[in-house]
Structures are given as C-alpha cells and as structure tokens.
Give the backbone structure.
Amino acid sequence: MPAVVLVGAQWGDEGKGKITDYLADQADCIVRYQGGSNAGHTVELDHEKFMLHLIPSGILYPEKTCIIGNGVVIDLGKLIEEIDGLHKRGVSTSNLRISSRASVVMPYHKKLDEIEDRTHNIGTTKRGIGPTYADKISRVGFRVSDLLQADHFRVRFNVEAGMKNRLLQEFYGEAGFDIDEMISELMAQIDRLKHYVVDTSLLVHSNLRNGKKVLFEGAQGTLLDIDHGTYPYVTSSNPTAGGACVGAGVGPTEIGRVIGIAKAYTTRVGEGPFPTELLNETGEFLRQKGAEFGTTTGRPRRCGWLDAVILRYAARINGLTDLAITKLDVLDELPIVKICVGYRCRGELLKEFPESNYVLQDCVPEYIEMQGWQQDISGITEYDDLPQATRDYVSAVEELSGVKQALVAVGPKRNQTIVTHTLF
Ligand code: GDP
Ligand code: IMO
Ligand code: MG
C-alpha cells in the first residue's frame, strides 16, 4: 500500500513516535499533517532517545523525505531549536521540507493560550495551538508563505498584531508585544528556514505518482479531535485519519491503510472525563512502570484500564484497517488485567461512545477481567513466543475493537516491536 495513515486511537501518547520510526524504515516519505509543538513523540534507539515535537519521527533515517504539512501550526523558534538539537546530535535535516501553506504560531498566540486556559481549564500545553488554529479559521492568521513576502506581511501583521495587543491590554489587562521586535524576530527565523519551504502537496503527489511509499504521522489522538473528541477537552485540529488528507493536500482515494495506535491501557493528559481512570495504586503502578509523564510538558499522565468502547469508536471514525498495540510489557506484573466493554450510564448500558461530555462523565465502565501473564515479555521477538495469556489479551482487544493487530510493542526501543502483518 503506497499511502498509510498512522493515528492515535486514544487521547494521545500511544507511542506514535516509536511506531512511525519503526515503519519509516519501509517508507520513502513521512508527513506530519496537523498539530504543532503540543505533540511530543519519542523515538528510542539502543543508546539514544529523541523527543520530536514538530519534525516527523522519520527524521532519523537520512534518506527519507520528512514533511511538515500545511495542516500543522509551526512555532518557528521551536522548530529552529529542534533542528539545532538534531544537528548537535549528528542528525541531518537536509531531507526536511516545510509547507508554504502551514500556519505560524505567533508570540501572542502562546500568551493568549496561557491566559485563556486559566478560565477554560482545558489543561492545554500552552503552545499557542488553539489561538493559532482559531486565527487560521477566522482568516486572520499568517502562513509560512506570507512571511516570505516581507512587505505585504508587514502591512497585515501591523493590523492583526495591533488588534491582539488591544485584546491583551484592554480586555485582559496584560502587557502587549512590541510589533517591530516581533517582525524582526520572525524575519530572522524565516530566513533560517526558507530553504526548507516548498509546496509540500506537490511533493507528496510526486512521491505517490512515482510509486514511493508515504506514511502520514498523526499527532494527538482520536479523542482529542476537535470534531470527534471529548469536546471541549480536545485539541484544535483533526488528528483523525480524514485530517491527513486535508492537512497534507492529498485526496482520500490515495489512502490505502489506516493504522490505529493504541496503548495496552489508557492514558490522558489535561482535564476532561476519563471513564476507566484508576485513582488507586494500579493507576500509580501504570504511571511509574509506563513512565507516564508528558513528553512536552512533563505533567503526570492520568492512567486507567484499556477501554474497548473507545477503540471501537476510533475504528469507526478513522476507518482503521489495523491496530498497533503498544506498551504491552507495562502490564507484565499484573495478576489480572481488565478491559472496559461498555458503559453503565443513568440506568442504561451504552455500547457506543457518547457524544456528550456530560454523559461521559456519568459513565461507569463495565469490565471483563482476564488473567495476567506475570512474565517479562520485553525481550520477546516472535508473536508466537508471547505467553498464551498475552495473546489472549491481544485477541480480546481485536475482537472487541473489530480490528486486527498488525504489530505489538513490548518496550520503547526500535527492536522491541513484533510485526505480524506487512503494512506497506
Ligand atoms: P506519542 O506521543 O504517541 O509518540 O507517544 P509518547 O512518545 O508521548 O509516549 C509514549 C512513551 O512510551 C514514550 O516514552 C515511548 O518511548 C514509550 N513507549 C512506546 N512504546 C512502548 C512500549 O511498547 N513499551 C514501553 N515500555 N514503552 C513504550
Ligand atoms: P501527542 O502527539 C497527549 C492535550 C493537552 C490538553 C488538550 C489541548 O504527543 O500524542 P492543546 O495544547 O493541544 O491545545 O491542548 O490536548 N494534548 C495532548 N495530550 N498527547 C499529545 O500529543 C497532546 N497534545 C495536546 O494535554 O488536554
Ligand atoms: Mg506524546
């Protein structure tokens, strides 16, 4: 299959970075299509660990084209930091390409994110994501290509940044930004980045027309989707599979497979309802054993049992063709493991994920219990060598979600991945 989309099936941090890096070996081109530096994707090699925020997780392969698509919101300063950080560690970014249509996160977007989240309490990453997408949709944002037209940019930026200063000063009572200073900083940043900038949709198309394999790397996850997630406790983009088409500039007919990445349990960062959350020692065990602390903000992640209602929903919304189940090894020591198969809510048994957060917060999970395997599986390399109880757990997940697994992960490193079906 020439074009494969990889999406988070839960609330983010499912191990998309690790699986993207693993599959990138077989791909020619890796494309981020939404989100921004709110994402934190971890790639672990034998002796090295990389945290990627804006750059696709295929960057460790020097011969692969890595694209930041038009659907991404780019904090230029953070991107330069990320590029410099990779260069210092000997990783080349000469194959990186940035969409001229991608939106730019401005200093006032980050400030507004911080101020407004004090009221809205979503628990955002404070990376300016919501305000930047809001400006994009309101048609008052700036794209990478705008910054390359310096004279035109200055005129419009003075107007828009002037309005943001009035909002900050007159409504919020905060300090405004020096507009000329922002312009000089942005001009210096775009000057550093301009040689990466192209029409990335054309580049993706020429790859596909030439029979190359393209991997679309989602950030965040299905339940953080602005349309299909647990609104308003979501991010401001479409991480779901459809977002790949819009955010990269390809038609849906190009997409051959959609892989949902799911942790063997569930985590969430930030606020909002979470039916299977464990506020007990099992939750704490998952957090410690799974090292569940945010890659971007360092916040402890909320942890709970696997929720098959969510996985069925993710299968439907994304049209999943395959599952990748990560972090199975984190469950190694548990005598029993549970999977949520439905919600008991206001006297009813719900089998489908509810549309309303108010309903979701009243949902009590109905579980099936399974035998744990109580064995270290982190060194196992063949699916058939996994303990029977682990394979039973995976089979239950397949059956309950309606999607077959194509690979499972038993540790954070590249080689701790067991593939059962070829994806490209
Ligand atoms: P992403 O945002 O989906 O890319 O996920 P993150 O990188 O934010 O979080 C996933 C964390 O789990 C990272 O620290 C990974 O190194 C780690 N990880 C990924 N897969 C596995 C696995 O199978 N087992 C264990 N123990 N850790 C894993
Ligand atoms: P990756 O790609 C987990 C969460 C935030 C907050 C909500 C809105 O690493 O899986 P935002 O800053 O996007 O406006 O915050 O979304 N969030 C994530 N949670 N993983 C992520 O990315 C996330 N990106 C945003 O914690 O609840
Ligand atoms: Mg992450």
Remarks:
- Residues 8, 12-18, 40-42, 44, 291, 295, 326-327, 329-330, 409-412 surround guanosine-5'-diphosphate (ligand 1) (CB under 6 Å).
- The chain has three domains: 3-101+196-258, 103-194, 262-419.
